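Checklist before submission:
- one chain only
- standard amino acids only
- sequence pasted in full

Submission:
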Amino acid sequence: MTFRVGIAQINPRLGDLKANLALYEEKIRQGEKAGVDLLLFPELSLTGYFLRDMVPNVALKLASPEIERLKKLSRKTSFVAGLVEESSDYRFYNAAVYFEAGEIRHVHRKVYLPTYGMFDEQRYFARGDRVRAFDSKFGRAAVLICEDLWHPSTAYLAALDGAAVVLCPSTSPLRGITDQQPQDDNARYWELINQAYAETYGMFVIYGNRVGFEDGVGFWGGSEIVAPSGRRTAKAKYYDEDFVVGEVNLDLVRRKRTMAPLLRDEDLDLTINELMRIRERPSEVKKTKVKSKKAKGKKKR
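Returned file contents:
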């Protein structure tokens, strides 16, 4: 199967759902004209990123009118939207929603919420608790949001769950630019891991970053599509808005996994057993310390 993927590298307005919905509609129409089958929007691009106390004001329940509007927009072109989802128990999630044929087909809630340096997500968002691949008309895929993909376990789980394509909406800021090193540190690292995951697991990695500035922080863009060979088949501009289109040919996934059947040979029992051992290790250390203290007490008597 071959299909066309677009990435809308946009500069959303902070806290302005109305303006960002209009921007979504504009880019979806642009995708339709370009023959795009699947369109990826960046992380939290329906709301802006540095929301802080605005989170409850822009959160959407999956039955909200704005979501119904997005469903209608997906009748011709499937897409991934980045938004704040409000659950029935009033929790707020940094979420990516996959729309297809006028319906919601999958919701991923960000699992790893960065709360260090300039990031403060865990203060405002609840954590997602699962990584799942899902079936779409383009085959089996998975969505991982920004920091999720910095943790190797997430790509591993997605691949083992059958994903041939990983869609990664991101809001990656500028960091580490100097006169001696003009390329952003984050850009360099993202390009490295996108290439590594694509080639290691034999899958397409579709990475959609944003641009612009919020609260004095800039975003570097550089969205890309990386094939299972590790080759970049589409690359957006750095620092500027862009709309890139690339072809995804799932035969390349088959070819890569046939030549290097790493997923076929993966020993799940080994992985599970070793993870269980590692998970129990802290309690074993604690027990050892308790025994040591008891032994010292007996010697004193």
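Reviewer check: DSSP finds eight helices and 14 strands in the chain.
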